Amino acid sequence: MSTGIWIMIVIIAALLGAVGGFFFARRYMENYLKNNPPINEDMLRTMMLQMGQKPSQKKLHQMMNAMQNQSKNQK
């Protein structure tokens, strides 16, 4: 086989791998987020009640803001 055909095969295989990898990663992340949803205010309220604290709306907003700031600083 000539060199041109091998180059075309490698390019096509790389493109197919990139497209397949994209869709695999997308499906993996969708399943991960479905099984492990991000924390929201209702989840925080439930956790605080389980720990024996009475959550106020102000405290919930402070905790949510602190968590969002922490995730922004990690990026």
Describe the structure concisely.
The chain has 75 residues and is mainly α. It has helices spanning 3-35, 41-50, 57-74. The chain crosses the membrane at residues 6-25.
Features:
mainly alpha; about 0% strand; 2 domains
List the helices and strands and how they pair.
Layout (H helix, E strand, L loop, with lengths): L2 H33 L5 H10 L6 H18 L1
Could you give the distance between the termini?
48 Å
Structural class: mainly alpha
Global shape: rod-shaped
List how many beta strands DSSP finds: 0
Helix content: over 70%
Mean pLDDT: 88
Low-confidence stretches: none
Describe this structure in words.
By secondary structure, this protein is an all-alpha fold. It folds into 2 domains: 37 residues; 37 residues. Helices cover 81% and strands 0% of the residues. The protein has 3 helices and no strands. The model has no long low-confidence stretch (mean pLDDT 88).
